[in-house]
Amino acid sequence: NAGVMQNPRHLVRRRGQEARLRCSPMKGHSHVYWYRQLPEEGLKFMVYLQKENIIDESGMPKERFSAEFPKEGPSILRIQQVVRGDSAAYFCASSPPDRTEAFFGQGTRLTVV
Amino acid sequence: QKEVEQNSGPLSVPEGAIASLNCTYSDRVSQSFFWYRQYSGKSPELIMSIYSNGDKEDGRFTAQLNKASQYVSLLIRDSQPSDSATYLCAVNAWTGGFKTIFGAGTRLFVKA
Predict the structure, then answer these.
(1) Does B72 contact chain A (CB < 8 Å)?
(2) Are the Cβ atoms of A56 and B43 closer than 8 angstroms?
(3) What is the pLDDT of residue A88?
């Protein structure tokens, strides 16, 4: 049973480009969470999704950021027109519908140059 | 007030000692509590979950929960240098589904 898979592991984008981060949850997990971690800081909640639904996006910046979890395929976190301040590690976690423990992927480290 | 608060540390203990990590939370309706360990440059790893008041032991780790005081702690007995990491306290809040909120983490250094 593969764990939570995130790709790419490292992503470099120039200012103004778009970044797409992918997350495939563990088998049987229908809940996905995205977190952002700045260097030397803790995890900041961004968004919580279930299949085809955004449950809580209270941690998402109002502009440039969006997330989806389609019926088929991975969850996508999209950042449009990236700026240097978007440089961070972005972690995805998943959990099954009947349990609350979340398990993390290896993260995508985004660097904006 | 932050939803989940932890002392950022660093907490330094000698090898073989007990490391005590503390966490307070603000949401009284929280039902589930977790401790994650994160090594530098790695992703968080779940090490303990606790749902009811009292102690829960797993090997060298003991989680303690006091819902009346909104307090959860993690004790690491016989600390080893390999325990040196950042420990993240996490609390679930219900928002139409469980949203897990993390504290900023406590850095632990175990000196050989």
Answers:
(1) no
(2) no
(3) 96
Q: Please, which pLDDT band fits residue A39 given cuts at 50, 70 and 90? A: confident
Residue of A nearest to B87 (CA): A42
- Contact between A75 and A93 (Cβ < 8 Å): no
Secondary structure letter of residue B13 according to DSSP = E
Residue A10 burial class via C-beta count within 10 angstroms: exposed 0-12, middle 13-18, buried 19 and up: exposed
**Residue B19 contacts residue B13 (beta carbons within 8 Å):** yes
- Please answer yes or no on whether B32 and A93 come within 8 Å at the CB atom: no
Query: Distance between CA atoms of B22 and B81, rounded to whole angstroms?
Result: 20
How far apart CA B67 and CA B86 sit, in angstroms, is 24
What does pLDDT average to in each consecutive run of 10 residues of chain B (112 residues)?
83 97 86 93 94 95 94 97 95 75 92 94
Task: List the structure tokens of B48.
Answer: 């303990």
CA nearest to B98 within chain A: A100
